[in-house]
Amino acid sequence: MNTSQPDRSRRRLLTRSLAAAATISLPAVSFQANAQSRQVLKAGDQKGGLRALLEAANGLEGLGYDIQWSEFPAAAPLAEALNAAAVDSGPIGDAPLIFALAAGTRVKAIGANRSDSYGTAVLVRPDSALKTAADLKGKSIATNRGSIGHYVTLKAITAAGLKPEEVSIRFLAPADAKLALTQGSVDAWATWEPYTAMAEVSQHARVLVSGRGLLPGLSYLAATDAAIAAKRPVLQDFLQRVVKAQLWSYRNVDAYSAALARIIGIPPEAAKLQFERRRQKWIPIDAQVIADQQGTADFYRQVGLIKQPLDVKGTFDAGFGVAAGA
Questions:
Q1: Which strands make up the sheet holding 218-224, listed edge to edge?
Q2: 272 Cα distance to chain centroid
Q3: How far is residue 11's CA from residue 9's CA, in Å, rounded to a whole number?
Q4: pLDDT (0 to 100) of residue 74
Q5: Rounded to an integer, what distance in angstroms lies between the CA atom of residue 231 and that of residue 18?
Q6: What is the distance between the alpha carbons of residues 227 and 107, in angstroms, rounded to a whole number?
Q7: 319: Cβ contacts below 8 Å, ≥ 6 apart
Q8: Domain holding 89: CATH number?
Q9: Which residue, of 180, 210, 240, is where some domain finishes?
Q10: Is the pLDDT of residue 324 over 70?
Q11: Could you say which of 149, 177, 210 is where a domain stops?
């Protein structure tokens, strides 16, 4: 079916807008002189974490392709960029991926990792009178719509016997949400690492409810269907470099934490705290991963965030081969 001219124009406008909103750190990362026949991987990132990992571990040496980085403050704008083909791939949590897929974004998870979910949490001011998730009844919580912060909010309140309509959720980007909390405009802020560690280290907030025991701790490297079809060897190489860099980071905790703090511009104490407690490991896309992801989709359907049931099996491409224990 041919695309109409207005549709093409809207798509070009959205792509340009997303590109402008993202921070392009460098036009490309390149280590070979002949660039004319080289493919370019348009790599999205959140808070510079993926690029920091690769740079700290020297994981970008000897590339046979170029990388054009785009940085986003959260998963939602990254998902929009994937939908608009402004980026080929990027890291995204389990809940934001469900939200993107339900909205029709043509992406698949090509790599999976699991981590401790403590840092995905509902935060309150240090002097807040709130003590448990049940205390959130009638309170206001800031977070990104469809984010893992949104997810942990809904998980926390339903586990406490509350209904979603018994709290007021305000959808704000991380920087705005933090400001709203510290200024008292909201009662709580639901967020993720490294924002949680940064808020704790600066003593701007404390954890009211953590995601530990509530969330499966899954995140993914997602890629668009078009990129998988056109750049599969590039994506395969990129994913393997990320996996190797993660292994390096656990053998060099202090060096990596210092590099992470420097590259993404956060306090060294926050970088080390969030890194050590996440204990992130890349894992194969197996039956347990798919079952856990289906549970997330079913929960989102249950609370009304997605309108139709979503079978997640078709949203994975397990052919990129991350080994167990990576």
A1: 66-72, 40-46, 89-93, 218-224, 107-114, 281-283
A2: 19
A3: 5
A4: 84
A5: 22
A6: 9
A7: none
A8: 3.40.190.10
A9: 210
A10: no
A11: 210
3-state SS record for 139-156: CEEEECCCCHHHHHHHHH
- How many alpha carbons lie under 13 Å from residue 109 in its C-beta half-sphere? 30
Return the minimum-mean-pLDDT range out of 149-153, 170-174, 317-321.
317-321
Buried b (16+ CB within 10 A) or exposed e, 140-178: bbbbbebbbbbbbbbbbbbeeebeeeebebeebbbebbb
Q: What's this model's pTM, rounded to 2 decimal places?
A: 0.82
**Distance from C-alpha of 131 to C-alpha of 124, rounded to nearest angstrom:** 9
Distances (CA, A) of 139 to 79, 187, 211, 221: 29, 6, 19, 34
- The kind and range of the H/E element at 71 are strand 66-72
- Residue 299 tokens, joined: 């929960």
Contact 107, 225 (CB under 8 A): yes
Is residue 296 within 8 Å of residue 151, measured between CB atoms?
A: yes
- Based on the fold, state whether residues 203 and 129 are members of the same structural domain: yes
Question: Which run of H or E residues covers position 72?
Answer: strand 66-72
Nearest to 125 by CA among 209, 211, 204: 204
* CB neighbourhood size of 103 (10 A): 12
| pLDDT higher than threshold 90 for residue 231 | yes
| Contact status, residue 150 vs residue 144, Cβ threshold 8 Å | yes
Domain range holding 127? 121-210
Cis amide bond preceding 194, omega within 30: yes
Extract the tokens encoding 280: 């992130």
